[in-house]
Design goal:
The structure is a single chain. A 5-stranded antiparallel sheet has the order 4-3-2-1-5, with no helix packed on it. By secondary structure, the protein is mostly beta strands. Helix content is 8%, strand content 43%. The chain has one helix at 27-34; strands at 38-43, 48-56, 62-71, 74-84, 89-94.
Length: 98
């Protein structure tokens, strides 16, 4: 090796840390963090409900406040309170960055 050649990578050291998105925490931590905030709940039927997550249980039964129902991107209904049975939930997403 001459002076201009970089040293080979050291494979015996620890790997680099994962990207920031992969270190976000557990799903339970996420759900605890979004209670009281706006979320988007996608049902297995493809319908979205956007509202403030007031509570949820271990079966993913969800209670939302100030809820809007979206079908194909269009608001079809608005509800003060909405209760969604957990077996219909495809995913829950934060509507705003957490």
């Amino acid at each position: 090796m001459d002076e201009n050649t970089p040293p080979p990578p050291d494979h015996g050291s620890t790997p680099p840390p994962p990207p920031a998105a992969a270190v976000a925490g557990s799903p339970t931590d996420f759900l605890r963090g979004v209670v009281g905030n706006r979320v988007i709940v996608r049902l297995t039927s493809g319908v979205d409900y956007c509202g403030i997550l007031s509570c949820l249980d271990g079966y993913m039964n969800i209670a939302l406040e100030q809820t809007e129902e979206h079908v194909n991107g269009t608001i079809t209904n608005q509800y003060r309170d909405a209760f969604i049975r957990g077996n219909n939930v495809l995913y829950i997403s934060a509507a705003e960055p957490v």
